[in-house]
TrEMBL record:
Pfam families: Ape1_N, Lipase_GDSL_2. This is SGNH hydrolase-type esterase domain-containing protein. It comes from the Bacteria. The keyword Signal applies. Residues 1-25 form the signal peptide. Keywords: Signal. Residues 93-208 form the Peptidoglycan O-acetylesterase N-terminal domain. The keyword Ribonucleoprotein does not apply. Residues 227-384 form the SGNH hydrolase-type esterase domain.
Length: 401
């Protein structure tokens, strides 16, 4: 916390030198263990029907998906394939929310963020204690008067976007956006200590250069990129390496309002691996935290579908005798708690470990080139295969053809 205060103080000092909502408005063979990945509850309310109809009408209005998670999400391979499959079927609605500046160890499937050295200080909810973090858990603090960021497409694209900044400002400032067609400037009004999305800038392409006219107390939390056509699937991947569900408790009170402003139709919670590797984890406390999170989502987003993605299979003690002894001590309990919590909250639950083939199946996946040598993370092919399983599961639940 002290480090964060120092950073913010430095930003205030440097910047003292001369110098609306972004939204108006899931093929492959199935492993033998997939039967165990079927839902334990079918979300017996109208939300599934609402979401199914949203997908069917995605050519006319956007379908917004937000996934929270750990390193499995932060790599944007699992979520990237989900995004590709969904957008291929229902239309490309855009990239969604990304961090404001590059995050070491985190990538985005569709874009690359670039900044010059010593222009920004990145602060992550992974290893900092603060109540200032926005939705997503990353703060980008300006260190110079006019810091800039470039957003590039990984592959050339003629896609046009609606772009807005997630920011916090003590006094009003402005943002300059430049693409190959010209430039636009937008006022970023003072936010009264809260996180807000700035005005939408329409019809911009990539690469895009963004320059902040910094004022004391100005920090960025991310960029929201939506297809200019205002239709199709938007899939935001909000992952933090090493994160647990409790990371959301570090975000500024009221971050749920930012989430609500995105109007998500589907919210995915994909935590559990890091909890499972903690032998000292208080399972009762974890159960209570998950219950509280689901209750809050139900209260804040009563019409959204909520989906829990269980942790994939993993190995912790390679030399132990017997499968159970090799697994993370808390893994089975975490999965059981998630399944039960989903039942109680009328949410969906996808058992990733069961899809892989059950306990210790990660060993077979590693032999097939689908899991990495650490027997925790998957390869790109493994994540994409897993995404296909989740995609098929979701379409089954929604009764989509």
């Amino acid at each position: 916390m002290r480090r964060l205060h120092n950073i913010l103080g430095l930003a205030l000092l440097i910047c003292a030198l001369p110098g609306c909502s972004p939204v108006a408005a899931v093929s492959g063979s199935t492993p033998a263990g997939n039967a165990a990945a079927r839902p334990q509850a079918s979300q017996g309310n109208s939300n599934l029907m609402v979401l199914a109809n949203k997908f069917k009408g995605a050519n006319r209005a956007p379908v917004t998906i937000v996934q929270f998670g750990d390193s499995h999400t932060a790599a944007d391979l699992f979520t990237g394939e989900m995004r590709r499959l969904l957008q291929g079927q229902y239309g490309d609605g855009g990239i969604g929310l990304i961090s404001a500046t590059p995050v070491p160890g985190t990538r985005y499937e569709q874009v690359i963020l670039k900044t010059a050295k010593r222009q920004w200080e990145l602060v992550s909810a992974r290893n900092q204690q603060s109540s200032q973090f926005p939705l997503g858990g990353y703060l980008s603090v300006p260190l110079v008067a006019k810091p800039s960021v470039r957003i590039e497409a990984r592959t050339p694209s003629a896609q046009r976007y609606r772009v807005s900044a997630l920011y916090q400002a003590q006094t009003s400032t402005s943002l300059l956006l430049r693409d190959n067609r010209g430039q636009n400037r937008r006022l970023l009004a003072a936010t009264g200590g809260q996180w807000r999305f700035g005005p939408v800038v329409n019809n911009v392409g990539l690469p895009l250069d963004l320059t902040l006219d910094t004022r004391p107390g100005t920090v960025l939390g991310g960029w929201y990129l939506q297809n200019q056509k205002n239709a199709g699937v938007i899939f935001s991947a909000l992952g933090i390496n090493g994160a647990r569900l409790e990371v959301q408790d570090k975000w500024q009170p009221g971050w749920q309002d930012t989430l609500k402003s995105l109007r998500p139709d589907l919210v995915i919670l994909a935590y559990g691996t890091n909890e499972a590797f903690d032998d000292t984890l208080d399972l009762n406390l974890y159960q209570a935290q998950l219950k509280q999170t689901l209750e809050r989502l139900r209260r804040d987003l009563p019409r959204a579908v909520v989906l829990i993605v269980g942790p994939p299979d993993s190995i912790k003690q390679r030399k132990a005798h017997g499968c159970a002894a090799r697994q993370p001590q808390k893994l089975a309990a975490i999965i059981a708690i998630q399944r039960q919590a989903a039942q109680q909250a009328n949410a969906l639950f996808w058992d990733w470990q069961a899809y892989m083939g059950g306990q210790c199946s990660v060993v077979a996946w590693q032999a097939q080139g689908l899991a990495r040598g650490d027997l925790v993370h998957l390869t790109a092919d493994g994540y994409r295969k897993s995404a296909t399983g989740l995609y098929d599961y979701l379409r089954t639940q929604l009764k989509l053809k």
